[in-house]
Amino acid sequence: MKTLITIIIIIISSFQAYSQACIINHTCSKITPIPESVIIAAKQKLHIAYGHTSHGSQLTNGMTSLVTFMNGKGYTNNLYAWNNGGTGGALDLHDYAMAGDVGYYPDWVSNTRKYLGTPDPGTGRGTGTNADVNVIIWSWCGQVTSKYVAGTLLSEYINPMVQLETDYPGVKFVYMTGHLYHSDDARTKAANKTIRDFCINNSKILYDFADIESYDPDGIFYEFASDDCSYYESATGKLLGNWATNWQNSHIENVDWYNCSSAHSQPLNANQKAYSAWWLWASLAGWDQSTDINKNEQMPPIVSVSPNPVSDYLTISSNQGIGKIEIFSTLGLKVLETEWQEKIDVSGLLAGVYFVRIGNKVEKFVKI
Q: Is the pLDDT of residue 10 over 80?
């Protein structure tokens, strides 16, 4: 399968300031769009320290089993390998580098500073044995909601992160939302939205843990889901099923998904977290998806792609001829190809998120 399209994320050169937020969410839970050269570049450039407890292990446990999964798909042997130190050409990722998780304040801040050491004005990083570390990422366990309720999300998470960024300008600090928690749905969503909005509005790097586990690989959104991937009729409604086990049961293991440890959840959730983690590493290493598109193609001036969401017809307006229109699923599968016409019949598409490619321009829309 040739994967062509994914949503475009903000990509800037490796360790320059982001002019816009770098948001890693469910649209980044794909592994095949990332070129092998970018994976290699990430392994060469990044030195990552990760602090977490059980929920956060979904990323690294998923990344561990991903190695064999991708080897079985014909990729370069151990392309996705990682270890503490980056030996053997692996990604240098120090798992459990700092004790606890980001919910334990002020411990997480103290542990970060202890790990990095005194700031070096020359490099903007720390000093001592971890002077090469240029990425810090912390996850939550279950405390994001309680901090939101207590009114300490700003003082015990966001403000300390900003101060760390100020003190260590040579280190990229990755913000993270907490996991889903259906038993306190509204306040958990509000807590995660607070972090998400801050990152978007202040040009931060965000690994959107909650958003990733709100969608299945087909881009179907589960509004009232929980961290184990069960989903409900409403915030107080009946249990409807488990999107991860449903998807796993209808797809082929070791072809469409792989088995792995996934604390408090299902293997597919950790699969998605691992794919998104590599998207994050690729972005921090300077991946610019626009370089994967033929820059010699002339992009016609698009006036509008509407409506969004769309029901039966997608309207594409332009002040000149466009040529071929291609529509892809979130897995990169081409589901429709046609010559340009102002109204494209999409009534045959299932509900979900799609991408339309017009020349070398990609637009996202939702089919309802």
A: no
Q: How far apart are CA 19 and CA 91, in angstroms?
A: 26
Interatomic CA distance for residues 287 and 24, integer angstroms: 13
Q: Are 358 and 300 in contact (CB under 8 A)?
A: yes
Query: Dihedrals φ, ψ of 334, to 5°?
Result: -75, 120
State the pLDDT at residue 9.
27
> What CA–CA distance (Å, rounded) separates 34 from 9?
12
Integer-rounded Cα radius of gyration of the chain: 21
Taking CA 39 as the corner, what is the angle to CA 206 and CA 8, rounded to the nearest 5 degrees?
45
CA atoms within 13 A on the CB side of 138: 26
Would you place residue 283 in the very low, low, confident or very high pLDDT band (cuts 50, 70, 90)?
very high
Of residues 172 and 336, the one with the higher pLDDT is 172
Q: Is the distance from CB of 11 to CB of 21 less than 8 angstroms?
A: no
Q: Cα(114)–Cα(288) distance, rounded to whole angstroms?
A: 34
Alpha helices in 202-315 (DSSP H): 209-212, 243-249, 267-284
205: three-class secondary structure by DSSP: strand
Kindly report whether the peptide bond that precedes residue 169 is cis, defined as omega within 30 degrees of 0: no
Residue 51: band (very low, low, confident or very high) from pLDDT cuts 50, 70, 90: very high
139: left (phi over 0), alpha (psi -120 to 50) or beta: beta
C-beta of residue 99 within 8 angstroms of C-beta of residue 110 = no
- Select from 324, 329, 334, 336 the least CA-distant residue to 300: 324
> pLDDT tens digits, residue range 170-229?
999 999 999 999 999 999 999 999 999 999 999 999 999 999 999 999 999 999 999 999
CA 167 from centre of chain: 26
Residue 214: name the closest of 265, 155, 250 by CA: 265
CB contact at 8 A, 288 and 8: no
Nearest-angstrom CA–CA distance, 219 and 353? 5
Taking CA atoms, 134 is separated from 49, 122, 297, in Å, by: 8, 14, 36
